[in-house]
Amino acid sequence: MTHPLLDLAPLTAARFASIERRVAALLSTEQDVVITQGEALLPLEGCIRSGARAGSTALNVVTGPYGQTFGNWLRDCGATVVDLVVPFHAAVTAEQVERALCEHPEIDFVSLVHAEAATGNTNPVAEIGGVVRAHGALFYLDAVASIGAEPVLPDAWGVDMCIIGAQKAMGGPAGVSAVSVSERAWQRFAANPAAPRRSYLSLLDWKERWIDGGRRTLLHAPAQLEMLALEACVERIESEGLTALTARHASAAAATRAGALALGGGLEPYVHREEDAAPVATTLRAPAGVDASELVTKALATDASVPLVAGGGALSREMIRVNHYGVDASPEAVLSSLAALGTALDAAGRAVDPEGARRAAAGAWG
Predict the structure, then answer these.
(1) pTM of the model
(2) Which domains does the chain have, with CATH numbers?
(3) pLDDT over 90 at 1, yes or no
């Protein structure tokens, strides 16, 4: 008996390349785009291990847990790392980046997360890109959470390595990702004797055997189901329109923030300034004396479908995250999340205004 998900014709190189072109169009980029056959950690690590090298100096901006991970990889490559650590409730500024570059003129690599879904902040990449470009450093950007939720423009912003994943705002599969690579990044990779080669982490293998070979022969058997899911995801985005998709995420963020403030019960936005808040997810600080993870558990007990999670690691006791991305960037998901939080806070003895929260959220939806 044939099965529609198992008995598939092989994915051709031509179809693989066509999906790459459509992903490149989402980024408005003329740079080379490679679809990597794994979760976004694959190109995130591959780019650092290709572009960082012993004797180099990197500026690593830390506005959340992924920035901490990138610093560890950079050090492991033998680079001297200057960490620019920003409180997780805020965004980094272009002025802070410029100051760090002036204090350390030897910096030749800058790593930054665009939107930190884990902490709910987003960074002003366009302004930062201008500063990095003027300095002459290579610019590495994690746009995994931001793509689809807000504009991501590597060419216009001077980004040399822009890594994206489909599993958040794009509403697609988690097992496949992509990276755009500038010409000067390729040159840095090729000049780095420690850059991965003949390795699953190797971007140079894709450059030499796939791109330079005219995209006629794939390096290995592609993750076929994930590639087809990515193709379907891009088709859905093209149908809705990228502008409409980002507007929907912005509306979800505005509605969640307004609704949480109106709900009361001691909830507060974790990211202080609304302009620093990421449209992919809204983080909230639990009321004093209330454990965030317990509150989320109670909320999910009332409605298991809502996209609520507690913060990770040390943030699990104080942070609540509303993951309004992909299909959950909708009025229904936002209102259901607020209602579930209201029920849980009420059970914890906190005074809440569910109707006020509903009205505020509905009024803030764009």
Answers:
(1) 0.96
(2) 13-239 (3.40.640.10), 242-364 (3.90.1150.10)
(3) no
